[in-house]
Amino acid sequence: PTAELQALDAAHHLHPFTHGDALNKKGARVITRAKGVTLTDSEGHDYLDAMAGLWCVNIGYGREELADAAARQMKELPYYNTFFQTTHVPAIALADRLAQLTPYDLNHVFFASSGSEANDTNIRLVRTYWEQKGHPEKKAIISRKNAYHGSSMGSASLGGMSAMHAQGGMPIPDIHHIDQPYWYGEGKDTDPAEFGLERARQLEAKILELGEDKVAAFIGEPVQGAGGVIVAPDTYWPEIQRICKKYNILLIADEVICGFGRTGKWFGSETFDINPDVMTIAKGVSSGYAPLGGSLVSDEVAEVLNGCEFAHGYTYSGHPVTCAVALENLRILDEEGIVTRVGSETAPYLKEKWETLAAHPLVGEASVCGLMGSIALSPDKANRAKFAAEAGTAGLICREHCFSNGLIMRHVGDRMVISPPLVITKSEIDTLVERANIALDLAHKQLKD
Ligand code: PLP
């Protein structure tokens, strides 16, 4: 029974990003199965999962081909590592497939099991690159406030979440943060194009402050996901790219969310015309069916790294089962035209429908990039006012109304975000927006009362 499961869960399971009091008051929702875009809980309620789990189930739930690929690989070779000059067919095949799929000359991959691990790898990788090139003093990495790059000490330091930094002594040394390109929330009264340039030029100012000979890399998500689906003004990325080139610092695109179709192309770097030296991947590479992450690097970076033994690696770097699952996932995304369809059909349709939410009295802004969307809740939309109560209260209320109306949306403070499976149909998008409207009406009423 659900209550017993919840009691056991609260007694023994420490959850990520969950307050213990909340679990004790009202147990966790127990999710038992899923198919397509729909999750079912232990009490038989169905939810349209507008978050694709944690932005990862790009292919949708219940694809047996992936289970079969895992089973086949487990029977053949369930585990072997890729250390000390050994390798195996699934890792070789996946590295080759990723080199074909990624843009530019990102032809080399270092495997990990998650985005956090991959970003930890990147810290050491870019520093090792500069050491090899005779510039060991180039250590600093510049990131952005409110960025999310993972939960390990290194990756959370790269991230710019102040609540995370406040726990456990982060950021680690030599990581710096500039402001995010969040025009709606922070660019009031400015022109978006000017604002984009101003925020990008903070990178230049930071490089000059630290000294260009001290800076190794800049890292950014093409679209900030966990920060609230924040799409930078058009002027931002070209300027970032120009500054990285001018000062000879490596550009790391964290594509953990944006990669594998989310923005309507295979990679966010293609959507925003970014030419990174290093790219972080995870989530959609295996649609979350098996844990996999990685760092893709350019020919030049690989050549420099291959000039030494990079003393870094995980037991599960290039795990054969996860590689086999990822290969099958990528085959389906490609052969069924799922990524192409997002770009040509589903994303434009979501944009049309999602933007209607901007008319709701509680919504200050509705924006979409590919199959990622967000709305900003505001008590006074004409002035883009924020709620007086602690940020997130209105968002939390709205999220709970979504749940009770069969919709899973996430709240980031008082922004509601979505990132549904890429296989979502137009009629499922209609349902998503209808349920969001109902939840907004209920939240609006509750916040007024
Ligand atoms: N980078 C980005 C942009 C992410 O959104 C996430 C997770 O949400 C990560 C890194 C960390 O990935 P993981 O949770 O697989 O460690």
TrEMBL record:
Which Pfam family, any one of them, does this sequence belong to?
Answer: Aminotran_3
Q: Which SUPFAM superfamilies match?
A: PLP-dependent transferases (SSF53383)
**What are its cofactors?**
pyridoxal 5'-phosphate
Q: Which InterPro entries match?
A: Aminotrans_3, Aminotrans_3_PPA_site, PyrdxlP-dep_Trfase, PyrdxlP-dep_Trfase_major, PyrdxlP-dep_Trfase_small
- A GO MF term: transaminase activity
Q: Which domain of life is it from?
A: Bacteria
**Sorted alphabetically, which keywords does the UniProt record give?**
Aminotransferase, Pyridoxal phosphate, Transferase
What does the similarity note say? Answer: Belongs to the class-III pyridoxal-phosphate-dependent aminotransferase family.
**How is this protein named in the record?**
Aminotransferase
Q: Which organism is it from?
A: Roseovarius atlanticus
Q: What is the lineage of its organism?
A: Bacteria, Pseudomonadati, Pseudomonadota, Alphaproteobacteria, Rhodobacterales
